[in-house]
Design goal:
A hairpin with a 7-residue loop joins strand 5 and strand 6. The two termini are about 20 Å apart. The N terminus is likely disordered. A six-stranded mixed sheet has the order 3-1-2-5-6-4. About 15% of the residues lie in helices and about 20% in strands.
Length: about 160
Protein backbone atom coordinates (compact mmCIF):
# COMPACT_ATOMS: atom_id res chain seq x y z
CA UNK A 1 0.00 0.00 0.00
CA UNK A 2 1.46 3.35 -0.96
CA UNK A 3 1.33 6.49 1.18
CA UNK A 4 -1.08 8.01 -1.35
CA UNK A 5 -3.46 5.00 -0.97
CA UNK A 6 -3.26 5.19 2.83
CA UNK A 7 -4.39 8.81 2.80
CA UNK A 8 -7.45 8.05 0.63
CA UNK A 9 -8.92 5.27 2.81
CA UNK A 10 -12.28 6.05 4.39
CA UNK A 11 -14.43 4.01 6.79
CA UNK A 12 -18.20 4.43 6.88
CA UNK A 13 -20.89 3.35 9.29
CA UNK A 14 -23.95 2.30 7.29
CA UNK A 15 -27.20 4.02 8.14
CA UNK A 16 -30.64 3.46 6.64
CA UNK A 17 -32.28 6.11 4.51
CA UNK A 18 -34.11 8.83 6.45
CA UNK A 19 -36.68 9.30 3.70
CA UNK A 20 -40.00 7.49 3.55
CA UNK A 21 -38.95 3.87 3.59
CA UNK A 22 -40.14 1.06 5.81
CA UNK A 23 -37.51 0.00 8.32
CA UNK A 24 -36.93 -3.30 10.08
CA UNK A 25 -37.18 -3.54 13.83
CA UNK A 26 -35.25 -6.60 15.09
CA UNK A 27 -36.64 -8.81 17.84
CA UNK A 28 -35.23 -7.63 21.18
CA UNK A 29 -34.12 -11.09 22.33
CA UNK A 30 -32.39 -11.80 19.00
CA UNK A 31 -30.55 -8.47 18.94
CA UNK A 32 -29.35 -8.92 22.56
CA UNK A 33 -28.13 -12.40 21.70
CA UNK A 34 -26.32 -11.02 18.65
CA UNK A 35 -24.63 -8.31 20.74
CA UNK A 36 -23.63 -10.89 23.39
CA UNK A 37 -22.04 -13.04 20.66
CA UNK A 38 -20.22 -9.97 19.30
CA UNK A 39 -18.93 -9.06 22.76
CA UNK A 40 -18.06 -12.53 24.13
CA UNK A 41 -17.80 -14.75 21.04
CA UNK A 42 -19.63 -17.72 22.58
CA UNK A 43 -20.82 -20.02 19.76
CA UNK A 44 -24.01 -20.79 21.77
CA UNK A 45 -25.05 -17.15 21.19
CA UNK A 46 -24.13 -17.06 17.51
CA UNK A 47 -27.31 -16.14 15.62
CA UNK A 48 -28.70 -18.56 13.06
CA UNK A 49 -31.77 -16.40 12.30
CA UNK A 50 -32.95 -12.91 13.14
CA UNK A 51 -36.64 -12.20 13.72
CA UNK A 52 -37.90 -8.75 12.79
CA UNK A 53 -40.97 -6.74 11.82
CA UNK A 54 -41.53 -3.92 9.35
CA UNK A 55 -42.08 -0.42 10.76
CA UNK A 56 -43.51 2.53 8.88
CA UNK A 57 -46.40 3.10 6.52
CA UNK A 58 -47.30 0.10 4.36
CA UNK A 59 -47.43 2.39 1.32
CA UNK A 60 -43.73 3.26 1.76
CA UNK A 61 -41.10 1.30 -0.16
CA UNK A 62 -38.93 -1.25 1.58
CA UNK A 63 -35.32 -0.20 1.90
CA UNK A 64 -32.37 -2.24 0.61
CA UNK A 65 -30.68 -1.52 3.96
CA UNK A 66 -33.58 -1.32 6.43
CA UNK A 67 -31.91 -1.67 9.84
CA UNK A 68 -30.35 1.18 11.80
CA UNK A 69 -28.82 -1.04 14.48
CA UNK A 70 -25.01 -0.77 14.40
CA UNK A 71 -24.89 -4.36 15.70
CA UNK A 72 -27.18 -5.84 13.09
CA UNK A 73 -26.79 -4.58 9.53
CA UNK A 74 -29.59 -6.12 7.45
CA UNK A 75 -29.24 -6.25 3.67
CA UNK A 76 -31.72 -7.14 0.93
CA UNK A 77 -31.04 -10.08 -1.39
CA UNK A 78 -30.52 -7.59 -4.25
CA UNK A 79 -27.88 -5.70 -2.25
CA UNK A 80 -26.14 -8.95 -1.21
CA UNK A 81 -26.01 -10.09 -4.83
CA UNK A 82 -24.67 -6.74 -6.05
CA UNK A 83 -21.93 -6.65 -3.38
CA UNK A 84 -20.92 -10.22 -4.21
CA UNK A 85 -18.54 -12.51 -2.40
CA UNK A 86 -16.63 -9.60 -0.87
CA UNK A 87 -19.10 -9.66 2.01
CA UNK A 88 -18.18 -13.23 2.92
CA UNK A 89 -14.51 -12.37 3.56
CA UNK A 90 -15.59 -10.55 6.72
CA UNK A 91 -18.53 -12.63 7.88
CA UNK A 92 -21.61 -14.61 7.00
CA UNK A 93 -25.23 -14.02 6.06
CA UNK A 94 -28.03 -15.10 8.38
CA UNK A 95 -31.67 -15.23 7.20
CA UNK A 96 -34.11 -12.67 8.59
CA UNK A 97 -37.63 -13.89 9.42
CA UNK A 98 -39.98 -10.92 9.01
CA UNK A 99 -43.36 -11.12 10.77
CA UNK A 100 -46.22 -11.28 8.28
CA UNK A 101 -44.00 -10.64 5.26
CA UNK A 102 -44.14 -12.58 2.03
CA UNK A 103 -41.38 -12.57 -0.57
CA UNK A 104 -39.15 -10.31 1.56
CA UNK A 105 -35.66 -11.77 1.32
CA UNK A 106 -33.28 -10.08 3.79
CA UNK A 107 -30.13 -11.15 5.58
CA UNK A 108 -28.34 -10.17 8.77
CA UNK A 109 -24.70 -9.49 7.91
CA UNK A 110 -22.91 -11.20 10.79
CA UNK A 111 -19.45 -9.63 10.72
CA UNK A 112 -16.90 -11.95 12.31
CA UNK A 113 -13.67 -10.04 11.67
CA UNK A 114 -12.44 -7.98 14.64
CA UNK A 115 -9.56 -5.71 13.67
CA UNK A 116 -7.41 -3.66 16.03
CA UNK A 117 -6.91 -0.59 13.84
CA UNK A 118 -8.13 2.26 16.08
CA UNK A 119 -5.71 5.07 16.87
CA UNK A 120 -6.42 5.26 20.60
CA UNK A 121 -4.49 8.50 21.03
CA UNK A 122 -6.46 10.44 18.39
CA UNK A 123 -9.89 8.80 18.80
CA UNK A 124 -12.45 9.76 21.40
CA UNK A 125 -12.23 7.67 24.55
CA UNK A 126 -14.50 4.59 24.43
CA UNK A 127 -17.61 5.00 26.60
CA UNK A 128 -17.53 3.08 29.85
CA UNK A 129 -19.81 0.06 29.67
CA UNK A 130 -20.67 0.01 25.96
CA UNK A 131 -17.22 0.72 24.54
CA UNK A 132 -18.79 3.05 21.95
CA UNK A 133 -16.26 5.28 20.22
CA UNK A 134 -17.98 8.51 19.13
CA UNK A 135 -15.06 9.81 17.03
CA UNK A 136 -12.95 6.96 15.68
CA UNK A 137 -9.63 7.68 14.01
CA UNK A 138 -8.01 4.70 12.33
CA UNK A 139 -4.36 3.81 11.84
CA UNK A 140 -4.07 3.65 8.00
CA UNK A 141 -1.42 0.93 8.07
CA UNK A 142 -3.73 -1.33 10.14
CA UNK A 143 -6.98 -0.61 8.29
CA UNK A 144 -8.29 -3.80 6.61
CA UNK A 145 -8.91 -2.40 3.11
CA UNK A 146 -9.48 -5.96 1.82
CA UNK A 147 -12.59 -6.42 4.03
CA UNK A 148 -16.08 -5.10 3.32
CA UNK A 149 -16.67 -4.65 7.05
CA UNK A 150 -15.07 -5.24 10.44
CA UNK A 151 -15.59 -4.67 14.15
CA UNK A 152 -13.29 -3.00 16.65
CA UNK A 153 -12.08 -4.75 19.83
CA UNK A 154 -12.95 -1.57 21.77
CA UNK A 155 -16.55 -1.54 20.44
CA UNK A 156 -17.24 -5.07 19.12
CA UNK A 157 -21.01 -4.52 18.98
CA UNK A 158 -20.79 -2.07 16.06
CA UNK A 159 -20.03 -2.96 12.47
CA UNK A 160 -17.70 -0.58 10.64
Amino acid sequence: MTDETKESLTVYRLLPSLSEYQGLHPNGFDILRTMRWQRVGDEADRPTRLRAEWLGERSWSKSEFPSGSPSAPVLSRRLVESLGDGLLAAGSLVPVDIDGAKDDDYFLYLVEQVVDCLDLRRSSKPKTGSGEVKKPVYRPEALPAHLAAFRLPQFPRAVQ
